[in-house]
Amino acid sequence: MKKHIPNAITCLNLFSGCLGIVFAFNGELQYASYAILIAAVFDFFDGMIARLLKAYSDIGKELDSLADMVSFGVLPSVIVYQLFLLSPQTGAISAWLPYSAFLIAVFSGLRLAKFNIDTRQAEHFIGLPTPANAMLIGSLPLILTEGNSLILNYINNPYILLIFSIVMSFLLVAELPLISLKFKNLSIKENILRYILIICSVILLLTIKFSAVPIIIALYVTLSFIQFRAIRQDQS
After folding, report:
1. What is the pTM of this model?
2. Which among 23, 67, 151, 187 has the fewest CB atoms less than 10 Å away?
3. Domain residues of the chain, as ranges?
């Protein structure tokens, strides 16, 4: 019985993603963003529970990727698609422009397929993980509700949305080593950058709320660059 518990949690991840897609197509982008957050919580706990119960299975691995494809691939794409439609400039540029948002879904699929067969990613990630990308995208509608006019102008600009979609798609499959947030132990020395990231993330979220998410993702990439640059220097 216990071997089915992680898969049941993964199914809740998938269910959250499906609900989020419905919310997004109905224009309820805030609820769609919350669905990404809930899916990310389930995605975290299915792996943790599987390790605690030693309930690993091939179907669990495949189910996890399929759920992530919906919750962290398709759902973020629909959110960006809707953000394109909300911009008054989009129609004047091209009616086809909003469909560029689905590049994120395509490259999320490539990212997940690559992760499943890439043995180099046992200790760290290569390319931006799909949950991190999805949470960044999910933060955009929530940032809009905070009423920052400067950020609003950027998010509502279709050219910036296009560039954003292309850049995030590239980061998903880039040969960019990134820190895994899975702790093997609680050693400060071995996990110093993870602790820095977590502490800074909490402080930023408490002070600037949802606007902190893009900064946290940028900090994550920067700390990863510092760590792996130091590793290369030690090896040379």
Report:
1. 0.89
2. 187
3. 2-178, 179-236
